[in-house]
Fold:
Amino acid sequence: MAGQRILYLNADGLTPFVVERGEIHATPPFSTGEQGLTAFDAYLRNCPPDTPLTLLVDLPDESHQLESVPFVRGRDRQPMIARRQNQLFGETPYRTYLSLGRAKEGRRDEQILFAALTRPGVIQPWLERIQHSSCILARMVSVGFLSRTLITPHRASPAPLLLAHVTPAGLRVSCFDKGQLRFTRLTPLKPGACPPSGKVLQTEVQRSFDYLSAQRILPRKGKTTAHVLALPDAPAEPITGENTEHGLAFEILDPQPLAQILRLKSRLTSADSLPLLLQALATTPHLPQFAPAEALAEHRLRRAAQAIGALGAATLLISLGITTANLLDARGQRHLAETRLLQVRATEKHLKAVTDAMPATPLPLEQLSLTLATAKALISTNAGPEPALRQLAAALAPLPGFKLRHIEWTVSAPTERLAFQALRVHFSLPSGAEHARQRVAQTRALLTALGTMSTADITIEKQPAEMNDTQPLRITEEQSGAETPQLTVRIQFPPDHP
Structure:
């Protein structure tokens, strides 16, 4: 049968339960004594290997101590708590603690509720048989701490309150402050006295109230509400609503709404709150743990092995995914490379076929044609630059006082079997800002004289900066070390006037 296996332990013996999807299935109980333990051994052997078991302890021997300890963090915290537990409950290994927060005044010490099951002899025989079986102890929880789940959220209050409910072990009265357990007491009931009468309920709750008031856990002034979890018609005698003398008020809680909140499907037929507790235990994690570390070693090893196995499986899946992606990518790259190689080979084959179809020549035809045309142009201009220089001299003869730096004579590449001659003439002009007007006037005179060469194409390649402005005259500041301003003119002659 699947589901959570919960072992309910009280002073009369141990009863196994299976909680599955809100349904609770009971197994015949095992009484205390050798016969009951032997039957429990047989029960454990019939369980599947590595079955997790939860032990729910409902004993009157449960002690609670609220202590103020220095607020410590890090590696010193656990040794300090262990020393205090040894001082309070050194004779039992079944102990736990619950932090209630820090005080708001003074040193702001930490408030810790230490708890222990003070009669280990009742628990030890059952626990030893679980440890020697193939089953695993998952956790050990007390009914006192678990009863906090019986307080519905809309009834939770920051003020202290009492909760009374009945289990097979007896009547349990617990005190909660700000939602945390502060005190619990179990009163065994006589056989056949369940559910208890209203008078018994009132008496036991009043006794717990008086004790807690004396310990200043409950306020002496004001009203404290005691919630009694029972069917409305369960008590044989009615419970008075309020004790005005002591400030204690009673309120009957119907367990049916709580069963709906906990999603309990089994029907409640009595005032016994055990079905509610079993369902709450199956659905509530992180409850205070009473089992010693060595009793939970196998469970922790199993959880560690499961975590390692899950991590290994996840790592394997990730590795397989990455490997698959790399293989697919490599296959795509290989296909692309093969396609490109086929394209390159086809191109090379086509180029080779075109090259083979062309006739072989010593030099490219265009280069041979250009060389021949250049040779013919040079032959046609065997007179040299003399005719061009004569025309330049005739144009510049009327102008005195200019400086000619140098002349370059070139023959351009032939066009339609005709070569063009060109002269590049460089003039030196007066330098300095004080000669700006003279420089402009001389430049204009030279350009006017060169313009008389009607058959030549005159191009100005360089002229003074003053000539580039649209203003009549702009004096340009020269930097130190600048070269003498130049006037460079290119004169191109037609082919029929070499």
